Amino acid sequence: MAGRIASEILRRFSIDLTSYEDLYKHFHAHPELSLQEKATSEKITAHLAQLNAYEIQTNIGGYGLVGVLRNGPGKTILLRADMDALPVKELTGLPYASSVVMCDADGNDKPVMHACDIAKARASWSGTLIVLFQPNEERGGGAQAMVDDGLYSKIPIPDFCLGQHVMRLRAGTIGSRPGTIMAACDSMKVTVFGRGGHGSLPHLTVDPAVLAAHIVVRLQTIVSREIEPSDLGVLTVGSLQAGATENIIADRAEIGLDFRSVKLETRQKIITAIKRIVEAECAASGSPKPPIFTPTRRFPPTDNDNKMADQLAASFGEHFGEDFDGNTDRSNVSEDFSTLATSKGIPAAFWFLGGIDHGVWDRAIKEDSLIEVASNHSALFKPVIQPTLRAGVDALCVGALTFLGKQNSSPSHKL
């Protein structure tokens, strides 16, 4: 369906988003951590049920759910949204800010925050629409869990997968690009061992805090000295834990690592370098036991199908005008959305949705202070409800209508 037609349909069937603003505030104030999205899933299920248009299936790969809207012959389009929140104490000061505390996967209490009615227009399009609400995106396991739990035996296999995520961009803007739009991401915990003892007798110990400190400093040379400057590589030490009191030398330290790449060979180069450096520093410190490397997360790169990206660019350009950027910068953040597509060889496309208040964004641009604008995963990240919500709804609808057929069109080869 041409971009102009998709935009016209959307304008003709535009809906009042007041009730959806209330839903947004509810979800923002009642977030749930990965693998614990029970109430969120139930709330979404109840909302879909009252629309009386979708075949609903729940508890797929955890608390994942899907709604299927069949509307005659044509393509099958999957729209994905994620549901889980982050272990971050919200400091936005919003009246609907989260004050929720939940127990995380490690047994620790953590504060939590969530850093168009196509059905009405059924006479104007033909095909099948699938809305998928995915759990456990933040830990990178939800999409695979849904696939492994038989997702595609429960619903029609889609012809196209579409997804979006709010980002640190001007509210109401849409950004996409052909090819890789988000990097791959790996996380791991590295445990190194020392010999514990009293702080007054350091010569009788092997201090894992000192060992870990040397590792942290040396790890910084991987990207700066081993990755080609034109390539993408990011390595972050996100956590470092050793001991629990001032005068005791611990017997181990744990280092939390996060690293990003686009090329598989670059990923392997980073992993190899991490292990080489850690093992060498352990040997240099006289560590009594070899280190342990424990992978904790892995996100694939998110690659937009070039043909889909071109078709979406035409539709988004028609609908959003100057608020659409078809060559947005590739991001180093990561998503597991693409697993829903690559597991079945389905073409997919993903885009960014801007959520930053216009005044805040424009002032930061004028003062060259964008670095001070809070981004995703920050305790101060606070997307404005409008025009963010309207743009997000419009983008999903325009995206779906771009690939759905016109009513009375000939059947797809795949039903």
UniProtKB/TrEMBL annotation:
Cofactor info, note text: The Mn(2+) ion enhances activity.
Chain segments annotated as transmembrane: none
Keyword Thylakoid: no
Domain Peptidase M20 dimerisation, chain residue ranges per copy: 187-282
Binding locations of Mn(2+): C103, E138, H165
Name under which the protein is recorded: Peptidase M20 dimerisation domain-containing protein
Organism: Penicillium chermesinum
Protein biosynthesis keyword on record: no
GO molecular function, one term: metal ion binding
Top-level taxon in the UniProt lineage: Eukaryota
